[in-house]
Amino acid sequence: MIETCEWVLREMRDEGGGFYSALDADSEGEEGRFYIWDRDEIFEVLGEQEGDLFCSAYGVTTGGNWRDPASTSEEKTNILFLPRPLDEAYGTEGIEPGELRDRLSAARKKLLARRGGRVRPHLDDKIMTDWNGLMIGSLAYAGKALNEPRYIKAAEDAANFILSNLRREGRLLHTYRDGSARIPGYLDDYANLADGLLDLYQATGEKEWLAQAQTLTDEMLELFSDDQAGGFFFVSVDGVEGDPAISLFRSKDPYDRAVPSGNGVAARVLLRLGEITGNKTYREEAGDLLRAFRVYLEDAPRGTESLMLAAAIYLDQKPAKNVEIEKEPGLVARMRKAPVTIKVFDHGEESSGGKVQLAIRLLIDKGWHINSHRPIQDYLIPPRIELDDNPSWILAEVSYPEGEKITLAFSPDPLSVYQGTVEIPVTIRARGEPPPSATITFRVDFQPCNANSCLAPETVKLPVVIRAEVKKGG
User: Please, what are the domains in the chain?
Assistant: First the structure.
């Protein structure tokens, strides 16, 4: 992931912050010429000792490991690849893991500098809104998961570029080149950009990105919705006015191709906004969309995976029945982000100094865990409970319990984790004289893991109504 992000920032980024569309595969009339290597050239750059190590690690041979199948030439050259994982190469090369990685990293930098002197492939320098939306979301997601501020900053720069240069009279445009933006935006432009801005909001907490995503989504509903059959058309309603041919063949595509379908991304955006804002209309719109394409999901699940993902989110977010709330005294908020359900309880406990005692309960699905508040390994991400800024209340104390020590196959060292049901007492304190009633919002950060892998870190927000009139005394 890191190398991919670094390549994008190095090769595909416009000086204004947007991202270009593509690089050609060929240069100097040959497919892949910019990227292939001759063993002698590697030795010329690295020397015999480092060159031999590099060639062994990356499958480079004297006779070459690849021939262009489209060429009439029998000549073979080398594509760099790992014929075996580096973990297996440690013993073979007789070098300590850290030293091997450092030496190969230094060698790659030297070869990258040499490659920079070659004739470069043609750059398609169009900046397209839909593809930039995907890149914004990917960099924001990677920046948060890897704790790399540069990636988040790059996502912010791209978002600012698109919103500043590819909007005209409040409408989104599709493509930009040489200082000029044109072509009214399509469904994919609105959906992908809104989705990327939501990733950016979750990575930064900046409400500006949430507001922009909501504005784009509202415009998407107005411009692209099929009010009769559900789902979204690819072309906006005003994009077909006066053109009967486009109106007749106005498409509504559920299928993923090289990129996710606009309808699949739109469904995900609606569900995310519904969860973040509490606006039920977004969820209802997503439900209508999924029902409109149900037959396609049943007949071609591998071709509609973005819609399948949205359907899974939709079913996972299904509101709990009222009877569940009635059976749990003191339950004031509930949210599920698979594989974790989070509940907030107010049992009416009070203490001196305008304090209110609450409890946040984490119910973690079987087979899953989250790191404890004090993980043994410093690179693991602990859960965190915070309170959004509030004029009436502040978070006074969070009492995290001790974690449970477990050992999993992927780590020889024990891990400190939470499993099953975890109760976390929290105390909030009034800033002054508390109002009779106020809504506070808890923010819970956590990273779910199973025995094999970890999901990306999640943030769940839970609004809670605090009624001060029942907290008198003390």
Answer: 25-121 (no CATH), 127-316 (1.50.10.20), 330-470 (2.60.40.1250)
